[in-house]
């Protein structure tokens, strides 16, 4: 939003008059604080980190564009959640993620034990370069959603029933056995879906080595959704008002 948009938004929402110059002065004071927060020192070890993205409407050179901001949520050694940083993906890939990971290292992070991601392109390669011992757990929920895109609606209920036998199996051996059964049943009809599970199995199956409580925490990136909902309360309202005003 431009400064004038913000001023108009405050007037419409709260009947509060403030000049664009005042908003600019406030922004000038806030930006250094934001930058200090973004570069603050971090703990040396995070047992679990989650990476997930949010899509925003952003004004860029006078045009409103959609951009994705990836949020890194860490669970520290005391079990508390902490947002480690926000990163705008101008060009997603291994170079982007290597830059993100190097930023974490420069801020004091020495090791990440488990990284839970949604299948972000280039991330597994980058994280192994920065933190070679980190285990990468791909989000099961994202994998399921991507699979169902290619399954006919008439088969989805039965296909999901068979998938549950895979990702809800009591151990990795049982999961692999059930995945083979799914391949025998669905492999000819949906070969790309089965191949996707097989090719990503190394990173999809790490959670089987942990207890039930840890499994429920790391098998999906849903830990970030609560944070995303809080952010959306503000961004959706502000953008809706701005869009209405400029005719988007």
TrEMBL record:
Annotated InterPro entries: Transposase_mutator
Signal peptide: none
Keyword set, alphabetical order: DNA recombination, DNA-binding, Transposable element, Transposition
KW DNA-binding (keyword) present: yes
PROSITE patterns hit by this protein: TRANSPOSASE_MUTATOR (PS01007)
NCBIfam families found in the cross-reference section: transpos_IS256 (NF033543)
Homology family: Belongs to the transposase mutator family.
Function description: Required for the transposition of the insertion element.
Name this protein carries in UniProt: Mutator family transposase
Species: Candidatus Bealeia paramacronuclearis
Lineage: Bacteria, Pseudomonadati, Pseudomonadota, Alphaproteobacteria, Holosporales
């Amino acid at each position: 939003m431009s400064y004038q948009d913000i001023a108009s938004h405050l007037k419409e929402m709260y009947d509060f008059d403030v000049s664009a110059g005042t908003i600019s002065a406030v922004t000038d004071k806030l930006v250094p604080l934001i930058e200090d927060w973004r570069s603050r020192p971090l703990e040396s070890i995070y047992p679990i980190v989650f990476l997930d993205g949010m899509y925003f409407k952003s004004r860029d050179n006078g045009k409103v564009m959609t951009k994705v901001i990836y949020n890194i949520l860490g669970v520290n050694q005391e079990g508390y959640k902490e947002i480690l940083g926000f990163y705008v993906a101008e060009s997603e890939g291994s170079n982007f993620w290597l830059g993100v990971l190097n930023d974490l290292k420069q801020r004091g992070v020495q090791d990440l034990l488990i990284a839970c991601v949604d299948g972000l392109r280039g991330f597994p390669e980058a994280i192994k370069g920065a933190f070679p011992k980190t285990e990468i757990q791909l989000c099961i929920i994202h994998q399921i959603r991507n699979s169902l895109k290619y399954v006919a609606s008439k088969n989805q209920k039965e296909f999901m029933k068979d998938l549950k036998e895979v990702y809800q199996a009591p151990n990795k051996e049982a999961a692999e056995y059930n995945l083979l059964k799914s391949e025998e049943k669905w492999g000819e009809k949906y070969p790309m879906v089965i191949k996707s599970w097989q090719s990503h199995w190394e990173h999809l199956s790490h959670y089987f080595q942990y207890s039930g409580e840890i499994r429920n925490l790391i098998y999906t990136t849903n830990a970030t959704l609560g944070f995303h909902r809080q952010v959306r309360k503000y961004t959706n309202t502000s953008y809706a008002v701005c869009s209405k005003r400029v005719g988007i």
